């Protein structure tokens, strides 16, 4: 009988914890912890080398902010770097540094409705796209490591990047004890908050996390959004023309 | 090939009605374009729709600094 009571208590405690987590919202700050310098600087003069080294260092200072609940999330570059009054040098350093991640400008995700709305800049014009969430075919591995004191598990995935028309690999470390299936940029779908992603150009890591019950999740205005189909047609046509030019 | 490529991008810039401040100046000088292109290709594996805008901005900036001709 006592055992039965104990089991009942444990079930209530477990459900209580799940309820508490479901009410929680988080503000998570990510940073580019490892920009990958793949660019060839051999043929550059000293000034050119200095410029790209500066861009590399600038990338290490880039921070992104994710606000999320169990239902929705919003992700963007930290505000201080987009104040709009940068010098021409700061402006181009920021743009060059942002290429290490190639993240979308802003990303809103409605977790339960399989909806993602993002703003993407293509050839100096911003497009807002509303589409289904990306599919990553995550494979969870046995490896673990600590990130900000949390136990994180390793997962690897692959997704199709329609803009460059190719499959890309991603490695993620997620925190099972924070059961929110969200992460930086478009990355999501793991049984826990993604604390770190490694993509082609950079490693992006959570450096700060705060929980709250009152965080407001921003949205991306969809009044001028184009559909996934229209976006695919747009970039398909542009990619074909671009490839024709490059090939010829 | 470079000039055709630049014309292509300029065409699309105008098609997209980019704000005047963002238009790329005429008169690219091959050296700066080459520097920027080499950087983008080696850093990102090739020129694509995602980085072609940055390639042009980078070229334009390098031209203004005198880093290349």
Per-chain topology:
The complex is a heterodimer of chains A (248) and B (69).
Chain A: H1 2-23, E1 25-35, H2 46-60, E2 63-68, E3 72-77, H3 88-98, E4 106-110, E5 115-122, E6 125-131, E7 139-147, E8 150-161, E9 166-175, E10 193-198, E11 202-212, E12 226-227, H4 228-247
Parallel strand pairs in A: 6-12
Antiparallel strand pairs in A: 1-2, 1-11, 2-3, 3-4, 4-5, 5-6, 7-8, 8-9, 9-10, 10-11
Chain B: H1 2-15, H2 30-44, H3 52-65
Overall description:
The complex is a heterodimer of chains A (248) and B (69). By secondary structure, chain A is of the alpha+beta class. Chain A has one domain (28-247). In chain A, 27% of the residues lie in helices and 38% in strands. Chain A is built from four helices and twelve strands; from the N terminus they run αβαββαβββββββββα. Chain A has helices at 2-23, 46-60, 88-98, 228-247; strands at residues 25-35, 63-68, 72-77, 106-110, 115-122, 125-131, 139-147, 150-161, 166-175, 193-198, 202-212, 226-227. In chain A, α2 (46-60) crosses α3. The relative contact order of chain A is 0.17. With 69 residues, chain B is mainly alpha-helical. Chain B has one domain. Chain B contains three helices and no strands. Chain B has helices spanning 2-15, 30-44, 52-65. In chain B, α2 (30-44) crosses α3. The longest helix of chain B is centred in the middle third of the chain and has 15 residues, at 30-44. Chain B is globular and about 25 Å long. The two termini of chain B are 19 Å apart. Classes of the chains: A alpha+beta (248), B mainly alpha (69). Chain B: It comes from Psychroflexus gondwanensis ACAM 44. Chain B: This is Secreted protein. Chain B: Residues 1-20 form the signal peptide. Chain B: Keywords: Signal.
């Amino acid at each position: 009988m006592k055992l039965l009571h104990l089991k009942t208590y444990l079930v209530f405690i477990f459900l209580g914890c799940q309820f508490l987590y479901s009410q929680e919202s988080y503000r998570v700050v990510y940073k580019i912890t490892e920009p990958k310098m793949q660019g060839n600087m051999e043929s550059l003069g000293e000034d050119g080398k200095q410029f790209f080294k500066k861009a590399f260092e600038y990338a290490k200072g880039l921070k992104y902010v994710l606000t999320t609940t169990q239902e929705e999330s919003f992700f963007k570059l930290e505000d201080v770097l987009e104040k709009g009054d940068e010098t021409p040098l700061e402006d181009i350093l920021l743009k060059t540094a942002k290429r290490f991640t190639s993240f979308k400008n802003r990303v809103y995700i409605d977790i339960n409705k399989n909806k993602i709305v993002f703003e993407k800049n293509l050839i100096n014009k911003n497009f807002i796209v509303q589409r289904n969430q990306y599919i990553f075919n995550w494979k969870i591995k046995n490896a673990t490591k600590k990130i900000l004191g949390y136990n994180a598990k390793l997962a690897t995935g692959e997704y199709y990047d329609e803009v460059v028309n190719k499959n890309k690999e991603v490695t993620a470390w997620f925190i099972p004890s924070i059961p929110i299936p969200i992460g930086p940029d478009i990355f999501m779908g793991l049984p826990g908050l993604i604390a770190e992603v490694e993509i082609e150009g950079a490693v992006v890591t959570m450096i700060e996390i705060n929980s709250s019950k009152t965080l407001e999740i921003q949205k991306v205005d969809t009044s001028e959004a184009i559909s996934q189909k229209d976006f695919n047609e747009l970039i398909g046509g542009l990619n074909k023309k671009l490839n024709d030019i490059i090939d010829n | 090939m470079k000039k055709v490529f630049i014309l292509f991008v300029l065409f699309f810039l105008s098609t997209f009605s980019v704000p005047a401040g963002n238009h790329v100046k005429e008169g690219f000088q091959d050296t700066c374009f080459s520097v920027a292109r080499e950087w983008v290709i080696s850093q990102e594996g090739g020129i694509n729709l995602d980085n072609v805008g940055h390639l042009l901005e980078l070229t334009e900036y390098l031209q203004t600094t005198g880093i290349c001709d």
